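Note to self: user wants both folds in one dump. Writing first protein now.
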Amino acid sequence: MTDKERKRIANRKYYEKNKDRLAEKWKHDEDRKEYLKEYYKNNKDAILLRAREWNRRNKEARKLIVVREKRSKLKPFWEVKPTK
């Protein structure tokens, strides 16, 4: 096992152990938000390409996600106000 793999495993364990605390910390970190905005702007094409490839490879999973989104947008009949 290489050092890189060991470090990756150690970081993953640390994150799993502390993810609630880290999420709360990162939510209010303005520097991190700015960094991520710049990162997504600079790497938009690569990110979209990766997403497109994932969607192509995982058609069934993508279909489930789309159906779930449609269901969440639908309102039950008792919440829909009838028009008069």
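First done. Writing the second protein, which came from a different request thread.
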Amino acid sequence: MKTQKPILVFVMTLRFFNFFKDEIAKKWPNHSIYFLVNPSVPILNEFDYPENKNLLFPYITNPIWKSCGEDIGYVWHLENEEVVKTNYSTTEILKSAETFSYLGSLGSSDAIAFYTLILLTFGKFEKPYLFYYLDDFGDKAIAFSLNNPLTTDHPRFQEKLNHGLAKRYFEYNFNFNFNSCVLFKPILKQVGLADSDFVFTKYVLQLFFALEYCSNFTTKDLVTMMENWSGTGLYLNCSIGRPHSYHYIFMHLINNKLIEYNGIYEVDEYTGKQYKQYNLSERGKALLKLINPNCRDIDLGGKIDLWQENWPESKQEMNEYLIDFFTKQMQFMS
């Protein structure tokens, strides 16, 4: 791409550029300013799995990512005090930039999203990159952040990145297209789910175990259960799932007829809203009998939190957990 001014690119996970544009324009008047919106959910990239041929399961390996979908529509340009959407690709704008940086608040999903974007664009994530941290969007906080940049080797960024790397490592080796998908496939086939898209993710499985002892529950009850998941008490935080994943978990169970509407509505006494009641279906009960009960782990959320806090030193312990977990199920099926 051709431009007379050197290009600055600010990467953020949400479209909050209107909070920053005036201060940025004042600070860098001789640059062409672009904002790259890099969602923290996997839209621009996804896991890349090896083919299952000749692999011995359980199979544990480091995650690989690949780009997915069209990477156009995520780059915005600051023009005449307004932010305008462009047709530039994320790869094109990053490779054209004199400097690029991360700008915004920071959670583990934000850090891993930035890491993955840079890794897939340049093939590596090595040198420290600029990082403008914000914990609020007030004018003073924005000005302070822009005048006091950090870098991605700063402990604040490294902590969140390690949390994200640990979480993705567990998910890569547990969830889609890998151990869970392959090793639970025979029992899913037995209950008529051979051709479905159903996969036991780490928290879908633990919630499914818990439903064995529940009846006449609503989606509201399931949210409360996941938000207040208590575990055994050995870990400070054992919550399972996140608010953005709750709907996916419900629909995953409902669409595959593992739970079913029992014909009764429950009315919320405060809002008057009606909620359908559900029970474990006959298919769900049959599937439960085919899963090793020792795969139930009500402390899983707490263990993952602890592994995240201690990554990468906790990697070996996580590997041992994953191998033991899937080995138990393989032996149970044999």
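Dump finished. Worth passing along: The domain at 183-333 is CATH 1.10.460 (Topoisomerase I; domain 2).
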